[in-house]
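Hi U.,

Before I forget, here's the chain from the pilot set. I'm dumping it here mostly so it's searchable later in email.
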Amino acid sequence: MSISSTIPLTTELDLPAYVFGIAMLLVVMLIHGIALVQIAKRYEVKSFLYLAEHRYSAVAFAFYLSVLCLFLMHIFEIILWGTALWLFKLLPNLGESILFSGSTYTAMGFMDDLLPNGWKMLAVIIAFSGMFAFAWTASVMISMTKNFRQAYTRMHMEKLKLPAEVIERFK
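Structure:
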């Protein structure tokens, strides 16, 4: 790699992208963590109460509503990245910035790298933020399925007219 005398070293090494990217990554992960805890906590409490009340369909509804909230949380994070790219004038229009952020955040990469020189590493940081967020969300969703599965199984046990003491032992 040769460093041209006309390109500053900070641009050549993408240093502004690292600083901006790490700061945005921290903001996105903080927002993600707060929202994730709120969604999971509300689901856990509601589903526990619904299970105790034998309202198994309500558990399923709460589960699917929570999954929708998780999806919307990721969409918000993509919009946040896109808005930041646009506000810092790294991409020319908001729509393109959000689409680029979504392509990168999901690691699908269906768009060309539109970032200017000196900012190319930012795409990798956006992709890492998406991977971290999706992994964190997946771990929470796995824990959420416990009550969902329990409600589903109990509902079918009742349909099979199994004795109440057998259903109650299943936890």
